[in-house]
Write a structure and sequence with these properties.
alpha+beta; 5-stranded antiparallel sheet; 14 helices; 47% helix; binds glutamine
Length: 320
């Protein structure tokens, strides 16, 4: 079945989702990273981007926040671009852990495998895989250039967040050394951890993440720059990684309710990919117990429900 969605219906749905969700009060800012505890909890925005570059934005969509774990998607794409899907599967994996994003237990249970690039262990390991191995500076350039390609504009390091996170990332340090013990890290562990911490501290806007989501939704073609960022054959792998573990231990509940593969970050972002239809990013700092933004997930779920779109439905949607 095919269903056309008028652009005006998309616009009204985004505004309605925003109005309905802006008064939601649940959740708390991440406070294990001191910088994030101080961000205004009332910030809230939703941005949707279509493959043809049209956008619908409401609220704080130009505010620069910490990309945090959403960056795991971008750097997984970089590793896929550089090394291809088989190496990523063999060296990292593509499975859910069913546990929190920084779970040491998950890593211990799967000592032969970090599971997925979308939890901390796998993301640190992915940074170690990024080429050229051995050069922190060149790897960092590759990571930032790749995020720029996907977003269509540059992210900017939030230096204060980077310092705050570097000073308090004890669990991630333990993870990096465990990976070393299990021979699941492929470059210097502390350098890989530093790259991971820095990429998490990049500042982006909801608009930028909506553009990168639309790039993934359109098989790697950036809707703004029109650049083919990654090979279209990689799209299903990227979206499957996101669907499997984008909300960590809540991933199944999320997909069941909202029907869109999405990735969260403790900075408050939720980035959703509706293949062939649109990319979306909602942003609001207060998080639930799994570290997923309360308001942002409510807003995207509301939007999907208002539009009656679901990735698992037997319908081909097109915004016209
Ligand atoms: N940088 C954060 C951390 O390592 C990212 C976590 C997240 O966004 N879920 O803890």
């Amino acid at each position: 079945m095919r269903r056309d969605i008028p652009f005006s219906s998309l616009e009204s749905a985004v505004h309605e989702a925003y109005e309905e969700c802006k008064t939601i009060t649940g959740g708390h800012n991440a406070d294990y990273i001191p910088y994030l505890a101080g961000i205004d909890p009332n910030l809230f925005g939703i941005a949707v981007c279509l493959p043809d570059g049209r956008m619908v934005c409401v609220g704080d969509t130009d505010y620069r926040f910490g990309i945090e774990s959403v960056s795991k998607v971008h750097t997984a794409i970089l590793a896929l671009r550089q090394l291809g899907p088989e190496i990523l599967l063999e060296k990292i994996g593509a499975d859910a852990t069913g546990l929190s994003f920084d779970s040491i237990m998950a890593l211990m249970l799967e000592m032969d495998h970090p599971s997925t690039p979308l939890v901390n262990a796998g993301a640190i390991s992915t940074c170690s895989l990024v080429e050229p191995v051995g050069s922190s500076e060149a790897k960092w350039k590759a990571i930032v250039d790749n995020i720029t390609d996907l977003c269509g504009s540059k992210p900017e390091l939030i230096e204060e967040l980077y310092q705050s996170e570097s000073a308090t990332n004890f669990t991630n340090r333990a993870i990096a050394w465990l990976l070393r013990d299990y021979t699941r890290i492929y470059d210097d562990p502390m350098m890989s951890l530093d790259l991971y911490t820095r990429q998490c501290s990049l500042g982006v806007t909801a608009k930028q993440l909506a553009v990168s989501a639309a790039t993934i939704a359109d098989d790697g073609k950036n809707p703004l720059t029109k650049e083919q960022v990654f090979d279209p054959s990689l799209s299903p792998q990227i979206v499957s990684l996101i669907a499997t573990v984008g909300f960590y231990q809540k991933s199944g509940d999320w997909l069941y309710r909202a029907g869109i593969p999405a990735k969260t970050g403790v900075g408050g972002a939720v980035m959703g990919i509706m293949p062939g239809v649109f990319g979306v990013c909602a942003f609001a700092p207060p998080l639930d117990s799994a570290g997923n933004s309360v308001k942002a997930q409510a807003a995207i779920k509301k939007l999907m429900n208002l539009l009656s779109i679901n990735v698992f439905s037997n319908t081909h949607y097109e915004v016209v």
